[in-house]
Specification:
Blueprint lengths: L20 H11 L2 H10 L4 E2 H8 L3 H13 L4 E5 L2 E5 L12 E3 L4 E3 L9
Antiparallel strand pairs: 1-3, 2-3, 4-5
InterPro entries: ArsR-like_HTH (IPR011991), HTH_ArsR_DNA-bd_dom (IPR001845), Metal_resp_trans_reg (IPR051011), WH-like_DNA-bd_sf (IPR036388), WH_DNA-bd_sf (IPR036390)
Pfam families: HTH_5
GO molecular function, one term: DNA-binding transcription factor activity
Length: 120
């Protein structure tokens, strides 16, 4: 049995399931929590470790870590070990450079608001 934080296995959808319902459902469930959407939005600006994400969102590190684990399980964030820290980023296929205004979930796309310019 795979570890709880292992990404979803890549399996072929059943015949006639063009939406890849199971995979899409897991991704949408993971994004169905406001904090996780905020994390994904934050990672649009570039990779960050759990402490940086927690500080930016003003959340406890343990809470942030839990949300990152859920996002990683749904293959919505990538993890890379960097020394003693783990750096999180968005997968290239989730936020393609050619269409940075959308999250590409494979089964559907979510339109992203344009980042607001910092207030003067």
């Amino acid at each position: 049995m795979p570890a709880a934080d292992a990404p979803l296995p890549q399996t072929s959808p059943p015949p006639g399931d063009r939406l890849q319902s199971e995979m899409c459902s897991e991704k949408l469930k993971a994004l169905g929590e406001p904090t996780r959407l905020r994390i994904v939005d934050l990672l649009r600006d570039g990779p960050a470790n759990v402490s940086e994400i927690a500080e930016s969102l003003q959340l406890p590190v343990v809470t942030t870590s839990h949300h990152l684990q859920v996002l990683a399980h749904a293959a919505l964030v990538d993890r890379k070990k960097a020394g003693r820290k783990v750096v999180y980023s968005l997968p290239l296929d989730l936020l393609p450079a050619s269409d940075a205004g959308h999250l590409n979930l494979g089964c559907c796309r979510l339109e992203l608001p344009t980042p607001a310019a910092d207030a003067v």
